[in-house]
Amino acid sequence: MLQTTTPKMIHWSLIVSALGVCVAILGGYCGWSLFPNMVHKKVEQSVILADGSEQYKRFVTLPQPLNFKVYIFNVTNPDMIQHGAIPIVEEIGPYVYKQFRHKKVKHFSRDGSKITYVQNVHFDFDADASAPYTQDDRIVALNMHMNSVLQISENDPGLALLLVHLNANLKAVFNDPRSMFVHTSAREYLFDGVRFCINPQGIAKAICNQIKESGSKTIREQSDGSLAFSFFGHKNGSGHDVYEVHTGKGDVMKVLEIQKLDDTHNLQVWLNASTEGETSVCNQINGTDASAYPPFRQRGDSMYIFSADICRSVQLFYQTEIQYEGIPGYRYSIGENFINDIGPEHDNECFCVDKLANVIKRKNGCLYAGALDLTTCLDAPVILTLPHMLGASNEYRKMIRGLKPDAKKHQTFVDVQSLTGTPLRGGKRVQFNMFLKSINRIGITENLTTVLMPAIWVEEGIQLNGEMVAFFKKKLINTLKTLNIVHWAALCGGAGVALISLLYFLYQKGRGVEAPLK
């Protein structure tokens, strides 16, 4: 009985082995071809902006607010600085705000590949996240509006006469300043406004009218006719910039890339490449607004973001693989070409606008490494650096006491889910400064030592909350895990069955037992 049954078992072992091979091949095909193609198409469908889609709803209103953190450099020796001392600063903060973004869509293009919108931004102070700091904290900080007016007047030959009148009318225009620093609250400095030009008379009134007509976004007229300076008050409420971005239709790798800003493809902020006005690399608008990125990221690649706040595109470079709450992704960070490598030797001298006189700069007009002149961007002599002047030239850092640069705290980075381009965690971190210096004919500045003076630094970032992490895992990560299990179960299971059956066949054949012939 055993001798007649054994050959049949050998025969079936060959059949089972063949079936195992088929299952393994099918598992390999599904895992390396079918499933990836299915996922690729599904991701494409999910990230393209189509009217009424889930992605469109997330595009119009971000599903969670961004974290907007502000750190103020409190000046501890303002009186000594007026007599030529090196400034000593201490960082206070963060003052944390929830930044809500809502896009008011104007229209889609006829072919559906472009969408035009205006973005409204609203800030809510987060008292719990800011504690122990409050908006009513008293601070001593750089008087940005007075310093700006003085330097603009100095740098514009047409305003030379204004300097003479300014010196005689500083008291009436800027509330009787005793130094280049203002004693105020965090609330006023950041959003509500530091008031000046309060009931001016005569020449002071004419000066205030000229300041008002300058059109600075950071200076707003109050109901009583006075003026008020704040860093971000103009950003809180209705937006003005009109964006046109790609929807991803026809080319998913362009999704959310900015095509136009205020109906133009390029900026007119930085120097251009020639006298004929050929657009320079500095004026090119590249990338997204950092709320999302094109999908299918690859190790070693780079991507761009465009920041209207600093009037430029910024390249982000791949750094490493990361895990965020169980979600795999890639980390990207800025490179040396952001503000360190600027000048003719780096083919981007178009950033060297050279608008400031008698400041710490190179002979060719470019600032030293780690600083970018935003004068033509903001219509104010503001200098951009990384927080605490991280990576900046010692020409600037040696002139300030109290800076504590730390790459982990002060470097810009973003963690991105590689398949969808969804930001998981990250922060844009920049610092705003002004040169403090002696200005001819302005008595209050006559003893100042020329320094690059920090005012504030900000971090605008996101950290995917628990609700969004759960949503993301349900929609993508769990599906990918299931497909991966099916892939390897079929591949390994089929291969295992085939191998065991084949070994059984070879074992029995070695014993001299033949499979029955049909």
TrEMBL record:
<protein>
    <recommendedName>
        <fullName>Sensory neuron membrane protein 2</fullName>
    </recommendedName>
</protein>
<keyword id="KW-0325">Glycoprotein</keyword>
<dbReference type="Pfam" id="PF01130">
    <property type="entry name" value="CD36"/>
</dbReference>
<dbReference type="GO" id="GO:0007608">
    <property type="term" value="P:sensory perception of smell"/>
</dbReference>
<keyword id="KW-1133">Transmembrane helix</keyword>
<comment type="similarity">
    <text>Belongs to the CD36 family.</text>
</comment>
<dbReference type="GO" id="GO:0005886">
    <property type="term" value="C:plasma membrane"/>
</dbReference>
<keyword id="KW-0716">Sensory transduction</keyword>
<keyword id="KW-1003">Cell membrane</keyword>
<feature type="transmembrane region" description="Helical">
    <location>
        <begin position="12"/>
        <end position="35"/>
    </location>
</feature>
<keyword id="KW-0812">Transmembrane</keyword>
<dbReference type="GO" id="GO:0005044">
    <property type="term" value="F:scavenger receptor activity"/>
</dbReference>
<feature type="transmembrane region" description="Helical">
    <location>
        <begin position="485"/>
        <end position="507"/>
    </location>
</feature>
<keyword id="KW-0472">Membrane</keyword>
<keyword id="KW-1015">Disulfide bond</keyword>
<dbReference type="GO" id="GO:0005737">
    <property type="term" value="C:cytoplasm"/>
</dbReference>
<keyword id="KW-0552">Olfaction</keyword>
<keyword id="KW-0675">Receptor</keyword>
<dbReference type="InterPro" id="IPR002159">
    <property type="entry name" value="CD36_fam"/>
</dbReference>
